[in-house]
Structures are given as C-alpha cells and as structure tokens.
Amino acid sequence: MSSTFKMSFSILFAAVLIIGLSACQSNETTQKTEKIRVAEVTRSVFYAPQYVALAKGFFKKEGLDVQLKTTWGGDKTMTALLSGGTDIGLVGSETSIYVYTRGSKNPVINFAQLTQTDGTFLISRKKIDHFTWSQLKDSRFLGQRKGGMPQMVGEYVLKKNGIDPHKDLHLIQNIDYANIPNAFASGTGDFVQLFEPQASIFEKEGKGYIVASFGKESGHVPYTSYMATKSYMESHQSAVSKFTRAIYQAQQWVADHNSKEIAQVIHPYFKDTDTDMLAKAIDRYKNQGTYATDPILDPKEWNHLQSIMKEAGELPKQVDYKTLVNTSFAEKAIKD
C-alpha cells in the first residue's frame, strides 16, 4: 500500500468519523426533551387521562418533560400562570373569563379540554335509600369556593331541581377548598360536594353516602381545560402542539380501556387509594361521560358555561368564544 493511498485512506476515515460523531451529536440535540411545567387545580381521578399521558409516556414520546404540581385552587393556579410560575394550567375555564374581564393584557387561552361534565357528587352524612333533591331543604350544605366551577354548577343543579341555595339551605362557603373533606369528616354540614376518589373513600369508611351526581345533572360544560397565557402559546407553539397531541392520545386510550386497566396505570398518582377504589371512581366518571374523548372545547359548551356563571351571578360580562378559546392545536392533534 503506497504512502499516498495510506494518507488518503486516513483522511477519508477521519472524515467519516467526524461526520458520524456530528450525526450522533445532531441526533442527541434533536432528542433533547423540552420541559413544561403544569399546575393542576387539584389531584383527582377526575383527571385520569392526564395521569395516563404521564404514566404511559405519551408526553415523553413527544419530546416533553412534563413536571406536574398541584396548586389546590383555581385562584392559586391562575396566579401561578400569570406570574410565570407555571407554563400550563389545568383549571376551570371560568378562570380565564375572570382574568380577561379584569383587563389583563396577556389573557389566558383555553386550548385543550380534559373534562366535559361536573366532577362532583352529592354526599349525605346519613344513608338515604330514596333520595330526592327536596330533602336538601333546611339542611346544612357544605359548598365549594364562591365563583368556582364546583359551586356554580352546584347552584345551577340545585336551582334546576327547585332548590334556592341561598334561601332553602344553610350554605357554608367559608372553608378553604383543600380542607372541605376534612371539615365534613369532622362534622361540618349535612351534605357536601366532593370529587372522586374522596367521595368513594368516604362511602367506604362510612363517613358519607353518595346520593346524586352533579355531573349527570349539569350537562356538557368545559369544566376543566388546559390553558396558557397568550404570550406563552405564541412563543411555544411547537410545545403546546406536542402537549395537546399527547393529551389526545391519552383521551383515546382512556376511552378504549376499562376502568380496572386505567386504575392500574394511574395508581402511582394515588398511592394511598387501592386500585379497586380507583376503578370504582373511574367507572362512575366513564358512565356519565365525564372524560372528554378529544381536546376540542366547542362553542355550545362555552355558552353553557357562561349561562351557568350568569345564573350564579358570577359572570362579569359575556365573552366571545374565539376570544379565549383556541382549538387549532386540538384540531391538529386529531388530524395527526
């Protein structure tokens, strides 16, 4: 082998090596994950598709590192969003209306719906074999935070069934959201509104009995949606698109699997609750169509939300659907 050939071969080998290393480095760069901070308003089986997306690695497959924290309240979730403490919030759509009507220059936009009915159940301290809504009259009702979705939908359902919550009940609304279950367990109230799995846990422990579902009574409403500030969505369009696609995959997975399978997958997020209890709670939600099967928030649901807010005296002013709802990411997720 001539020295010239050896030199040419060495140069060629070095070039191939450099190209190979560059390709590996380029591949590593493209595989880098993007961090997204998500604040959920509460921890509940109500949000099962979200935990499926995390547990099944749907976010990871999209190149996202989703860091989830629970903020315990709509006001706290919105504060985190507006202050830059989180990137995406999972919270009731009513909060976006409150922020917008207060004149925010950086409105919060709903881009993916997760739940489409109320997620609370009416719990009675005493067992009632044949419940009627009229049995609530003159009772002590432990309600949710004034102006929040649980309380507004609760009032809507009560009025629909002939109960004026401010005249026919001894309404208790001065207890912090996170402490409502403990307050009821300690003896406050004859009835309470609770999410799952807390409702089923109370029933199992004999602390209360599920007598009605607000979700069945309320009809479709954008109860909980993913939202972000307008500025974040404009500067992170790719991330929001990937996030929505992962949520849609999870929604489809939940729709296609039974409650026991879902319970096993999300159990790491509810370690203190056994899988049978989780499956029972999930079954309740699936049977009443609580989990949205796609992330599109439609105009009819948006208008129903504002009707409920108006009925509760909490709607500052009517807000056009297109002002605070962006379905382009959801539509793309379904198309993809």
TrEMBL record:
| Classification via PROSITE patterns | PROKAR_LIPOPROTEIN
* SUPFAM superfamilies to which the protein is assigned, alphabetical: Periplasmic binding protein-like II
Task: Provide the protein name.
Answer: SsuA/THI5-like domain-containing protein
Q: Which residues form a coiled coil?
A: none
Key words of the record: Signal
Give me the segments passing through the membrane: none
Q: What is its main location?
A: periplasm
Q: Which GO terms describe its cellular component?
A: periplasmic space
